[in-house]
Specification:
Layout: E1 4-9, E2 35-41, E3 51-60, E4 66-77, E5 79-83, H1 86-89, E6 91-93, E7 98-107, H2 109-114, E8 116-124, E9 136-142, E10 148-156, E11 181-183, E12 189-195, E13 198-205, E14 210-212, E15 220-225, E16 230-239, E17 249-253, E18 258-264, E19 270-275, E20 283-286, E21 294-298, E22 304-310, E23 316-322, E24 325-326, E25 330-333, E26 337-345, E27 350-356, E28 362-367, E29 375-376, E30 386-390, E31 395-401, E32 407-412, E33 420-423, E34 426-435, E35 440-447, E36 452-457, E37 465-466, E38 476-480, E39 485-491, E40 497-502, E41 510-511, E42 517-525, E43 530-536, E44 542-547, E45 555-556
Parallel strand pairs: 10-16
Antiparallel strand pairs: 1-11, 1-13, 2-3, 3-7, 4-6, 4-8, 5-7, 8-9, 10-12, 13-15, 14-16, 17-18, 18-19, 19-20, 21-22, 22-23, 23-24, 23-25, 26-27, 27-28, 28-29, 30-31, 31-32, 32-33, 34-35, 35-36, 36-37, 38-39, 39-40, 40-41, 42-43, 43-44, 44-45
């Protein structure tokens, strides 16, 4: 993960020395003069060793004389040999009179290291002043030519007292650099080189799932840049739960041999991460979605992944990746219910998206060199559709739970069939696969008694078969070509994952333990020949485990 670090110039240093005024006299005392002072360097920029002049303007705004107006105290930096002229000895101002007094001196290398020089002081008459608020002079100038560096390390920790561990990776960045910004490398280090001396702020943008602990949870760090010196910072970042509220949807990308994950955060934004010889950081795809994401990989849209979802306003929206760049969210239909699903149909070379309409019918549209209009396929849906392409018949098949609790389906073969009722008493959304080993369509459901039921088509439909179990989620089912098995995964009421598989006959239930929420997501990854199970946890983070001649432990995906 990478943290973005931005550099901002701080406001100009304002340095003034407040002078104590003389105590006020009795009401019958004589009126005091009112002297106002201002001053400025004669140039906005100087070289080291250059002579300067500060012109000080003094005006007596009162009707009484000001006697012995003199320097009473102050400070300066970046200058040497300062001669305050008559301000050191005092001068007089008649009522209404204005005088200009010159202060002279030489700029120094010390001033160049800080990039500036200033002179600040107070002055007042011997008898006091009626208004001391305008008796301060602050004159500033710059002495350019020196540059400093800022180096830093942003590293994981739980408290402000955390320290880097030797060999420990830092918090890595998630985007590239532009002028005024940089990003941490894979070791968590960052730097700004050749920075002009100034008081600056480092504004920190951590990647999703992290917060900055230093300083005190703020996202900005003050830094003073001094010429020919390096400011070295150590900043602690703490991992936070991502706040995942959707199913963690997984996808095997055959072009790049990667596993891709997609999940909605509690702020409605979509996050993604990928595995290519190691997990990337979560990256942020934005959006404002209110459903689980539906993810599809297909060739027609420039070898990319597409994500479909219902937006917070109820619209069907999509985002797609063209090679490595996301195009951004756009709307395909103004209003839908639930979570859409998408498939690639190799027979027609089309991408097809199916969803439940506001009227509880089945809506769909397809992409073939452009998006079609939305078509209504009727029905009486009580849940989200599950859709497959069946290569045996060249059909698209859509399965839904209807209002009676049964499963109904229809298929496309040159035209849409009517609805066919498969019976059953189910809850939730069915899971449907095509099994190439047997050439069967297989439909898996959670029954009203929370058992796993399935039926299959092989020249005709079988009856419903009860596989038992105690489900607390929809089933997630895959075909595993490595061993020729059908594998069904579910979440139990104990928030563990259980599965069983078919290989000439059904196995018993196998408990994979864990602490999960929602419906798990399962894929077969041909690149590694692994079965991979992904889920969110009750705390809103993501976890996974995989099978490769044995099950791994559960792994966090921070």
């Amino acid at each position: 993960m990478r943290a973005k670090t931005s550099l901002f110039a701080a406001a100009a240093l304002l340095l003034g020395i407040a002078a104590a005024g003389l105590p006020a006299g009795p009401a019958s005392a004589a009126a005091l003069p009112d002297v106002a002072l201002s001053g400025a360097f004669d140039k906005t920029s100087y070289a080291v060793g250059e002579h300067f002049t500060v012109a000080v303007t003094a005006t007596n705004h009162s009707s009484v004389p000001a006697t012995g107006v003199h320097y009473t105290g102050g400070d300066s930096d970046g200058v040497d040999g300062t001669d305050y002229g008559v301000l050191s000895t005092g001068f007089n101002l008649a009522p209404g009179e204005t005088k200009v007094i010159n202060i002279t001196g030489v700029t120094t290398e010390q001033g160049q290291k800080y990039g500036r020089a200033y002179i600040a002081f107070d002055a007042e008459p011997i008898e006091g002043d009626a208004d001391l608020s305008d008796n301060t002079v602050l004159a500033r100038t710059t002495i350019p030519g020196a540059f400093g560096d800022i180096h830093g390390l942003i590293f994981p920790g739980d408290t402000l007292e955390s320290t880097p561990v030797p060999g420990q990776p830092g918090l890595a960045s998630q985007s590239g650099a532009v002028l005024g910004q940089t990003t941490t490398g894979t070791d968590g280090r960052f730097s700004f080189a050749h920075v002009a001396p100034a008081d600056v702020w480092l504004r920190l943008t951590p990647p999703p799932g992290w917060e900055i602990l230093y300083p005190e949870g703020e996202d900005a760090v003050p830094v003073q840049v001094i010429g020919d010196e390096t400011a070295d910072l150590q900043i602690v970042a703490k991992a936070q739960a991502l706040g995942i509220t959707s199913k963690v949807v997984s996808l095997a990308n055959p072009t790049y041999g990667t596993t891709e994950l997609y999940a909605r955060r509690d702020d409605g934004h979509l996050n993604t991460k990928a595995f290519t010889n190691g997990w990337s950081a979560w990256s942020h795809l934005g959006g404002s979605i209110a459903s689980d994401p539906a993810v599809l990989y297909s060739i027609p849209l420039a070898t990319g992944t597409q994500v479909y979802a219902r937006s917070a306003t109820g619209a069907l929206v999509w985002n797609r990746k063209v090679y490595t760049n996301w195009t951004g969210w756009s709307t395909l239909a103004p209003s839908i219910k639930g979570t859409p699903t998408a498939i690639f149909n190799p027979h027609y070379g089309t991408i097809e998206v199916y969803f439940r309409t506001l009227a509880n019918t089945l809506g769909y549209l397809y992409y073939n060199n452009g998006w079609s209009a939305v078509q209504d396929l009727g029905g009486n849906l009580a849940g989200d559709p599950a859709v497959i392409y069946n290569p045996t018949y060249g059909t698209t098949e859509a399965y839904v739970r209807i209002s009676t609790g049964a499963i109904a389906y229809k298929y496309y073969l040159g035209g849409w069939s009517g609805w066919n009722n498969l019976g059953g008493t189910v809850t939730g959304t069915p899971s449907v696969i095509y099994n190439p080993h047997y050439g069967t369509t297989e439909v898996y459901t959670r029954t009203s008694t929370n058992a796993l039921n399935y039926k299959y088509y092989l020249g005709g439909w079988s009856g419903w078969n009860n596989l038992g179990g105690t489900l607390d989620s929809n089933p997630a089912v895959i075909y595993n070509p490595r061993v020729g098995t059908t594998e069904a995964y579910v979440r139990t009421p104990a928030n563990t994952v259980e599965y069983r598989y078919y290989l000439g006959g059904w196995s018993g239930w196998n408990n994979l333990q864990g602490s999960v929420a929602g419906t798990p997501s399962v894929i077969y990854n041909p690149h590694y020949a692994t079965t991979e199970v992904y889920s969110r946890t009750p705390a809103g983070s993501a976890v996974y485990k995989f099978y490769n001649n044995g099950w791994s432990a559960w792994n966090d995906l921070p």
